[in-house]
Amino acid sequence: MQLKPIYRIKTYVVPEYLEKVITGVLQIDELGYGHYKNVVWLSNDGVEQFVPSETSVPTEGNIGETTKVTSVRLEFSIPRDEKLLRDIIENGIYPNHPWDEPVVQVTEELEARKHD
């Protein structure tokens, strides 16, 4: 067993754009995990709530009004490499996500790997 330093990346995506975001990320990195690739975790549908401000460019909803949409949490891990992290967010997630300000959360973690 080995402990590998990783970034855990989470974003929330409406189901219609989920495959587009995953494909965009996979064009940057194959998301390997041991002997597997294209490894992502998906939640069940949830509800995302927001109020677009005057400076937003909402894809859904209207400025100043509460909007609720169905979304899925997409989660994956990559080696702890800041250049790769920035590339995935800026070129894999942002251009393929429908929101003008997608929620992208990054944590530094250790993953236990049976195989390298």
Overview of this structure, please?
- The protein is built from two helices and five strands.
- The protein has 116 residues and is α+β, with helices and mostly antiparallel strands.
- It has a single domain, classed as Alpha-Beta Plaits (2-Layer Sandwich).
- Strands 1, 2, 3, 4 and 5 form a five-stranded antiparallel sheet that branches.
- Helix 1 packs antiparallel against helix 2.
- The mean pLDDT is 94.
Summarize this, please?
By secondary structure, this protein is α+β, with helices and mostly antiparallel strands.
Tally of alpha and pi helices: 2
Number of strands: 5
Average pLDDT over all residues: 94
User: What's the level 1 CATH class?
Assistant: Alpha Beta
Element-by-element helix/strand order? EHEEEHE
What is the rounded Rg? 16 Å
State the shape. elongated
CATH architecture: 2-Layer Sandwich
Strand content: 35-45%
Low-confidence stretches: none
Distance between the termini: 9 Å
* Biggest pleated-sheet summary: 5 strands, antiparallel
Helix content: 10-25%
CATH fold node name:
Alpha-Beta Plaits
Class inferred from helices and paired strands: alpha+beta
Overall number of domains = 1
